[in-house]
Amino acid sequence: MQLAALSARQYRSLRAIRMELGGVNLFIGANGVGKSNLYRALQLVQAAVRGTFAREIAAEGGMMQALWAGPRRNHEQARIVFTVEVEDETNGLSFDYRIEAGLRPPNAAAGFMYEPQVKAESFRVDTGRGPVEMMKRQGPGIFLRDGRGRMAAFGESLLTSETAISVLAHEGTAPEISAFCRFVDQWRFFHGFRTDAASPLRHPCLAVTAPLLDEDGANLAAVFATLSVTREDTVELDEAIAVALGGARLDISEPETEASFGLSLPEFPRRIFTARELSDGQLRFLALAGALLSYRAPPLIALNEPESSLHPDMIEPLAGLIAKASEKSQIWIVTHSERLAEAVRLRCGPRPLRVVRQDGATWIEGMRLTGAMADGDDEA
């Protein structure tokens, strides 16, 4: 499966935008143009699938902070709307999931005033003959298409803060919904890594097989140990580290109850430097390497400003890691770095998409309203 398009309406700086997506999606722009809001929109779709949508919006400050603050058309409702389109080339299917969320009505019964309320959801499947609605949610009710092709009520009433897609994800009543949810649940988002003294990157972790890096990097040592012990292959990882860190060599201890790692530096060949001793840049590069070269490739890897705190000499090796990961995963990158954008373009092909502000709203330079690029360049 692959994410084919993302649409967002009335979310922060995203007035109304639809983007067609490819294997590598690279967004570059100045501070404050809304690059991170595009990234965040994807995270909130995943939160809907996981059942944490309301909590994630609340953590941003509630609906009043999350809603588009600019003017709305007459009679246009104040609602955040996200839609994702997913293609399943193996089975010749495409999926379309949409969620709408708004505020509690002024005359509603007592409740959480600024908690997001899910107003509507829909899930459609297209087998090539046109989209068919498989699930529809209005208010607390869910309707599912049954084996005879009729929409029937699902026997559970939802709270306004709950998402229908998360309730149906493990029901087994709609295999297409379950497949879509498994796909979205495996997306990985990496928004920087802590490198302070208390950062989990600097401490050993439990010795448990780790096919994927946690989003906070807490199991990084276990990810490295999994590559070393389970796959018995760290060639790509070793090469990337040697190039980026001046010939350094990763030292992976045999895991017992805990997993740990260190670095051997060429100027100090008899000493292993523990994770506690590494510089912020060294540690962040190692975490990015773990994210991009993990044992199992997630279907989508999203990186938000991965160049932060990296030495300029690490940019080219990072681009190499991204190119390697793109062979198995769809990539989404938000960056300020022209150098990283150009390095990724040279290795992967697609040119960067420049994010701008247009009439106060986030937009992609040269993009049509349909989400396609105006110049017709497929690489974009």
Account of the protein in words:
By secondary structure, the chain is an alpha+beta fold. 26% of the residues lie in helices and 28% in strands. The chain has 10 helices and 19 strands. The longest helix is centred in the N-terminal third of the chain and has 16 residues, at 35-50. It is globular and about 70 Å long.
Radius of gyration: 22 Å
Distinct helical segment count: 10
* Largest pleated sheet: 8 strands, antiparallel
Residue ranges: pLDDT <50 for 5 or more in a row? Answer: none
Task: Spell out the key features of this protein.
380 residues, alpha+beta, eight-stranded antiparallel beta sheet
Quick recap of the structure?
This protein has 380 residues and is of the alpha+beta class. Helices cover 26% and strands 28% of the residues. The strands form four sheets. The chain has an eight-stranded antiparallel β-sheet with strand order 2-1-4-5-6-7-8-9, covered by helices on one side. Strands 10-16-17-3-18-19 form a six-stranded mixed β-sheet, sandwiched between helices.
Itemize the secondary structure elements and their pairings.
Elements (H helix, E strand, L loop, with lengths): L1 E10 L2 E7 L3 E5 L6 H16 L2 H7 L3 H4 L12 E10 L4 E10 L14 E10 L4 E8 L2 E5 L5 E3 L10 H5 L6 H11 L2 E3 L14 E2 L13 H12 L3 H10 L4 E4 L5 E2 L1 E4 L7 E3 L5 H13 L7 E5 L10 H11 L4 E6 L2 H11 L4 E6 L2 E4 L16
Parallel strand pairs: 3-17, 3-18, 10-16, 16-17
Antiparallel strand pairs: 1-2, 1-4, 4-5, 5-6, 6-7, 7-8, 8-9, 11-13, 12-14, 14-15, 18-19
Pfam families: AAA_21
GO molecular function, one term: ATP binding
Protein name: AAA family ATPase
